[in-house]
Amino acid sequence: MKLLVVHHTPSPNCQEMFEAVLAGATDPEIEGVDVVRRPALTLSAADVLEADGYLLGSPANLGYMSGALKHAFDQIYYPCLDATRGRPFGLWLHGNEGTEGAEKAVTSITTGLGWVKAADYVVVSGKPSKADLEACWNLGATVAATLMA
C-alpha cells in the first residue's frame, strides 16, 4: 500500500508539523505501507492515482489553503475524480489566524473527490506545542495504519 504525503512547507512551523506527520506515518509498527512525499507544486495525477491514501499539509494563508495546495487539487481533480473515491485522507494546517476557510475548502474538495476523512484535522496557530506535534504524529500514524493490510 502507498501513502502519499502532499505538503507545502514554507515556514519552520509548517516544516516541524510535516516532520511530525512523517514520523507517525513511518513508525516501525506500521508495516506494509510505503510513504511517498510530494511537494504540492510538483504533484501529478499519476502520483495520486498510484496512492491508496493521502496526507495533506498546508499553511492557511489569508483564511484559505496555500496556493500550492490549491494548484495541486486543480491539477488532479478531474483525472482522479472517479478512480480515487473512498480512499482515506488526513489534513494538517498551520495558520496564525482564520483557518476555517482553509478547512472548509479542503473539506469541499475532498468531499467532491469522494475521499474519506480518516482522522480529525490537526490545526495549529502559532508555534506548534508538544501536544500539537503529538497530534501531527498521531495523524500520520492513524492514516498510515488505515492502509495496513
How does the SSE layout of this entry go?
Blueprint: E1 2-7, H1 12-25, E2 34-39, H2 45-50, E3 53-61, E4 64-65, H3 67-80, E5 88-95, H4 100-113, E6 116-117, E7 122-125, H5 130-146
Parallel strand pairs: 1-2, 1-3, 3-5, 5-6, 5-7
Antiparallel strand pairs: 3-4
Helix pairs in contact: 1-5
What report would you give on this structure?
- The protein has five helices and seven strands.
- The protein is globular, with a radius of gyration of 14 Å.
- Helix 1 (12-25) crosses helix 5.
- 44% of the residues lie in helices and 25% in strands.
- The longest helix has 17 residues, at 130-146.
- InterPro entries: Flavoprotein-like_sf (IPR029039), FMN_Rdtase-like_dom (IPR005025).
- It comes from Mycolicibacterium llatzerense.
- This is Flavodoxin.
What is the structure about, briefly put?
This protein has 149 residues and is an alpha/beta fold.
How can the largest sheet be summarized? 7 strands, mixed
Give the helix level as a range of percent. Answer: 40-55%
CATH architecture: 3-Layer(aba) Sandwich
User: Which homologous superfamily in CATH is the superfamily?
Assistant: Flavodoxin domain
Class, according to the CATH hierarchy?
Answer: Alpha Beta
CATH-defined fold name: Rossmann fold
Shape: globular
Distance between the termini: 8 Å
- Summing up helix and strand content along with how strands pair, one would put the structural category as alpha/beta
